[in-house]
Amino acid sequence: xxxxxxxxxxxxxxxxxxxxxxxxxxxxxxxxxxxxxxxxxxxxxxxxxxxxxxxxxxxxxxxxxxxxxxxxxxxxxxxxxxxxxxxxxxxxxxxxxxxxxxxxxxxxxxxxxxxxxxxxxxxxxxxxxxxxxxxxxxxxxxxxxxxxxxxxxxxxxxxxxxxxxxxxxxx
Length: 171
What we know:
Layout: E1 7-11, H1 18-24, E2 26-35, E3 38-47, E4 54-59, H2 72-90, E5 94-99, E6 109-114, E7 127-130, H3 137-149, E8 157-159, H4 167-170
Parallel strand pairs: 1-2, 4-8
Antiparallel strand pairs: 2-3, 3-4, 5-6, 6-7
């Protein structure tokens, strides 16, 4: 994820020190961000080349698509950890969408980071996050890639039932 400012899987707004960011380049963590005037769980990234953290994913606190055990807060925490672990492993070089082959009882679309460009299929260890049933995988990936390319000009993606129709609505 060379262009993306990154943060760590430190939970509840624990901020990385400048020394830690210099060592790792990027850090992902679960914190909070303002979305539609409310404080919501968010996967946040920090990078030493930027002076501010960026929100990668906003989690709608009213989203119950994943059941009681996967609340938006828990998803934020787990997904932030996955981003950091995969960043540490291979810098989130190649991001793709796929159907989870390791889930046998239903078809589930996922966003993942693969280690090689020629390998487009996702394995369980590549999983960044699971998509909701109504999600268009290509649109989610498009939004994530726009943010990655220019985090200062594009907002992070929103995970929840009601997607914003514009940047102003999302902000």
